[in-house]
Each structure stands twice: as C-alpha cells, then as structure tokens.
Amino acid sequence: MATIYLQAENLSKSFGDLTIFSDISLSLFQYQRTAIIAKNGTGKSTLLNILTGNDSADKGKVTLRNDIRIGYLSQNPELNEKATILENVFGADDEISSTIRNYEKALAKDDKDLLHHAMEAMDRLNIWEREVKAKQILSKLRLDDINQPVTKLSGGQRKRVALASALISEPDVLILDEPTNHLDLDMVEWLEEFLTRGQQTILMVTHDRYFLDRVCTDIIEIDSQTVYTYKGNYSYFLDKREERINSFTSEVDKATNLLRRETEWMRRMPQARGTKAKYRIDAYYKLKDVASQRLDTSEVEINVSTSRLGKKIMEVKNLNKSFGSKVILKDFSYTFNRFEKLGIIGENGTGKTTFLNLITGAIQADSGEVDAGSTLVVGYYRQEGMNIDNNKKVIDIAREIADVVTLGDGKTLTVSQFLNMFLFSPEKQHTFVYKLSGGEKRRLYLLTILMRNPNFLILDEPTNDLDIHTLNILEDYLKSFPGVVIVVSHDRFFMDKVVDGLLVFEGNGEISGFPGSYTEYRTWAIEEEKNRPKEKSPEKPIKQEQPKTQTKKKLTFAQKKEMEQLSKDIELLEKEKTELESQLSGGALNPQQLQEKSNRYQEITHILEEKEFRWLELSEIEEG
User: Fold this and answer.
1) How far is CA 328 from CA 409, 486, 494, 508, 592, in A?
2) Is the residue at 301 inside a domain?
3) Residue 296 covered by a domain
4) pLDDT one-digit tens code per residue, 34-76
5) Does 219 share its domain with 285?
6) What residues have CB less than 8 Å from 354, skipping those under 6 apart?
7) What is the mean pLDDT of residues 242-250?
8) Own/partner long-range contacts of 267-272 (Cβ < 8 Å, ≥24 apart)
9) What span, in angstroms and rounded, lies between the C-alpha atoms of 488 and 511?
10) What is the model's pLDDT at position 9?
11) Are 233 and 123 contained in the same domain?
C-alpha cells in the first residue's frame, strides 16, 4: 500500500472579504510527482505556503508523516542577503550541510589545517558522493562562483540559488513553485531529467506544459473551488478533463430538460399531497440544484487592434555591443519582415535581453545602426521591468494609458469593459495592485502593453507566472497577430506554437538563424552533435614493431583461479544489483530502507566495475 507523506483536509483561506479557496483537500503519496493546475488568483502559491508551514489556513489541517523533511522553492525566494551562494545553498543547520560548507570554505582558503579537519569530517559522515552531486547541480545551474555574495546576483540567479538549495538538501518531499522560471532551455531539460531519474516525491506548480508532460505522474486540478485528481501526466489530464466537462454538461442538460416537466407538475399539483407526491417534490428540488450548476468558463479575451504597419519594418545594420571583455553582439545585421514570428534562444548571459534593449533604444550600441520604419509602434513586455504602482487600483493603472480601447473588429470599449475581457471583474478593478496574485499582476501588465495597439510586439519571458488557460489564449492571439512578434522564452510549448523561426545566441557575439520551431531546432542540433566527428587526441609516434619471436603469454595457475572466482562474483553481484533495482522502483521501501538500498546499489556498481575491468585484463592475457 502506498505511503501518504502529506495530507491536507478542508483547507480554507480568505484575505478580508476575498475567499481564495474553501474546503480544499488533497493527499500526496510517496514517489508521486504531482502538479497543481488552476487559474491565476485561485491561491496556488498560497496553498503551497500553507502546506510548507510558511502560512496558516483559516480552517482545516495539514498532516505530515513522521520525520518527513520538506524542501521548498517559493515563487519569490528569500535568501540570506549577508551570505554567499555557498552559505545559502548549504545554509541548513544539520551536520551534513555544515560539514560540506566548511569543506568548501577550506578549499577556497587553501588552508591545509582546516582542509585536513574538513576532510576527516567528510570521511566520518561518508558524504563525498553528496558533495560531488551538489557540485554537479551547481554546475548545471551555472552557479560556478559559489563564494559570490548573493547581493550581486540577478533575479534569475537568485531563483537558481534557491532551486539548487532545495535539490541539494535531498528532502523527502520537494515542493516547487514555478521551478522553470529564469532557467534557460538547456537547464529546463536537465531539470526534467534530474527529477524523473531520482526517487523524489514532488508537488509543484508550473505553467510549462512539456515539463508537466515529462515529469508528472499525477495532476490535481482546482476548478470552482473543487479538487479533481487525475492519475497521469498533462496529456492524460487534458483528455480526462474534457471527458469530465462533457459528462458534467450532459448531466446538467438532462436535468434541465427533466426540470421543465417537473416544474409543470409542481404548478398543477393540488395542495393536499400524499407520500408519493412528497417524494417527487424532494426529487424536484434535488433536480433543481443539479440543473442550476454552472461551469466557470470565463477566459481571457485578447482582441486588440494594431496600428497600421508600413512596408519598412526594422533594419539592424552591423550592430556591435560589449561589456568590458564580454562580447554580446559582433557585427550583427538583420532585416525584420512583415508578420514575422521570431523566437530568440540561448543560454543565460548570451545577450538575449541586451539585444531587445538595443533594438528598442533602451541602451546604446557600441557601433552600428537600428533603422526603424516610421509606422512602427513597439510594445515591449519586459521580463523584469514591470513598473506598476502597487498602491494604485487596477482601473486607475489602465486609465493612465487610455479611456477607451479599440478592438480588432473596430469596436471601442471603455477601460472597465476591456478589463472585464482580461478577467478583472468590477470588484477586482477597484482592488489595489498589491492585493493581486503574481499571475494577475502579469496579466494586468500584458493588458497595459496591448492597450497601446502595438504592431511590433516584443515579449521577454511572457509565460512566467501566467496560468495555462491564459497562455493558450495568448498563443492563439499571437499566431494571428497582424504584425511582428519577437519572443524570448524558456517555455518550449509556447515557442513551438507561436514562432516560425529562431535566432540562436551562441555566446561571444555569435548568432545563427534557424528556419523552424524550437523542437525542430533541438532535433536538428542533436543530430548535428551525433554526426560531428570527435576530436582525436594527438597521436603518439608509432614504434616500429620487431618480429615476434617470443611465445604467447599464458595465464598462471593463480590467475586462472582468480578469473574463475571473478566470474562467480560478477554473476552474484549482477543478480543482487537487479534485485535492488526492483526494490528501489517498487515503492514499498520506507525512507531509511530506501537510503540503505541506494547506498548498497552504488557500492555494488563500483565493485562490479573493478571486477569486470580485472576480468577483461586477464581475458586479454589469455587470448594473447
């Protein structure tokens, strides 16, 4: 029977007169990798904070299995500002974290005495493998300078430090709020592999649909304050959700049709009613409840007119930009075409956002020219440039831009009507911005960009914090957008759906083009890597062989006996290894047993490698 690690019962949470969720219940079982899917503003992050003990519910309780350790990556993690990356990543008070922290500090200081004591402590706790794994995680997240103060880090780097800390701590339950935000595409793919390869129990909130598909074993949907559970990945969830909605709609339609007949009977029925009539009356009221049910089908509507776009769009000519010795752009030229949908990819730090700032004039190039057409109206959705006054009301933010908005069909709406299209109800419109969720703030920010009727739309990480429902609407809008769209995003699903060409930032100012989607590019890049000839190591001068006159070497009696014993040992170890693999993936082990079996599995793997290598050595002697 599967072990429940975490259970939430009848949780309710309100902020003033605003109910976030009511009577939410859910369970998390060992080895489950579960995602929570819900619209923005329904309290996903608040729910995670309650489950981790960082917030409290108004009603209900959260139960953890004894001795369960939780690792938590919040949407906006708080780091120790006075500490380094190292001290934040290994900041826990437990003995293992402090020992690794001391060892890394001793290495950095090159203090032999400190290093000697630190190594003894590492030996005593047998945590060398843990330290190596931590280094691999830090390397994959490109946090190489672990002694760097966190005060000098960008927002994206800070999120990666918090993610590294959560992964390295090896908790029993890993709770992740938007883990792919601020990761480049290579990092996202690595994280997918890391989470699916391990034996973690995970609860996450993410909008990345490929990530959901490849990592999750279960989906929890919160819809109209009701929890629905699906045993499968995101694709399975989509199919079953559609079945649920169709079944619900059919049930309501059937009840509505039946209700008409029963309502007529209620009107005609005389006052003196018998037992049978009373039963039918009770059934009537139950039927009325079913027929009155409604699905929350409210969705964002994006239908905004664009300014007229002339023949000349934008030409980038021989653009150069460096920061000190770091080259961002090197003699780069590009001509944007009408209706172009262009994606920009590359590792963090290769200059993607700098390029956007250059072509919009936010920063100046070292040399070169950006020649924009006279009809160009740029809408720039910035990754970290959301300057919205938290102390203003939603409707006042919108009114600062325009009093009326022109739609794609030429109709005009008041600001209040337009806010309704973006799911800001009249009550929400008079809410202060600081009361909005992260996703609602992003939706408001997108609205302020589109209200200006741009015809050249730049989106830098637009998917961060937006819910999946909003993303689907935005994707459809962008596909038919009658202008130029440039997208920088780590969301592969979004890129595949929207863009039809890529600029690949490869670092050191090198930029290449690719005529296709991200998935097509990735497939091509993998094939290129496979077909690329491997670099040969410098060849050693070949000695001229002398004619062999000596006889073949033969195994000694002792070597033959050793080889026989090695064969037996290898067979037994292979058998034990197979049994351990079955136990580790069976889901029946408790955490202590899991750790013991895992340690033994690693030990066997190492022993097998040594014995197989020795057996090969002896077999080569035997073959002469």
Assistant:
1) 41, 18, 26, 6, 50
2) no
3) no
4) 999 988 888 899 999 999 999 999 999 999 998 899 999 998 8
5) no
6) 321, 328, 329, 363
7) 77
8) none
9) 14
10) 94
11) yes
